[in-house]
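Mods, move this if it's the wrong board.
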Amino acid sequence: EKVWNSHFKAVWHLNNNPTGSIFDSTAKDNDGTSKGGMTSSDLVNGKIGPCLDFDGIDDSITFSEFTDSLDTGTCIAWVQTTSTNLGAVWAEANMNKDKPYIVCGKYNDDTLTFARDIYGVDSNYQGRKPIGMNDGQWHQVAWLSKGSGNGNTFYFDGQPVSLVWQDGQNPNGIWFDDQSTDTHSIGSLDRPTNDWQWTGLLDEIRIADTPFSAAWISTEYMNQNNP
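Not the wrong board. Structure tokens:
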């Protein structure tokens, strides 16, 4: 626990048997619970030690709300997939309504995505960029917010990526505190329609309350990709 400073709100190595708790390695103890009948066979070799395999049907990990005060932050993860379907790496939702939500993941085919909607056109932000995510190789992905009015930034394998915002709607720094959600999830969007199911492997997902620098992300990518 003392490895992680106070800016880290959760660090999941995803190296636990999913029939039990999915442990957060920080002192915050934001542990999760698997859904969809995940078994010990879903614990497989990952990018950094063991990781979890998600079936794209109903597998996911859910957590209690813990980021509703964060207006800046970073979500960073290692992913591997060959799927052309959309999928959530990390998401926030309301268990009883389809909106509001935030998704950090991939859209159809190979597209890096940030999606967020409360209600109506003025709250709908859909950013996408074809990036080659579904090649069956491990990739590091990161979604960042510098706070309202200060912009969002995104990274793929340690390099910045500019998303194309649908309908010209740019969130410009909107992050977790801008909506009322009551559940977090890895591998799906945990709402009544239960969609955005991830197909493939996820490893080393980390949530922080500060935007990491470009140098930090690049260095972390190089250290973890080829130490």
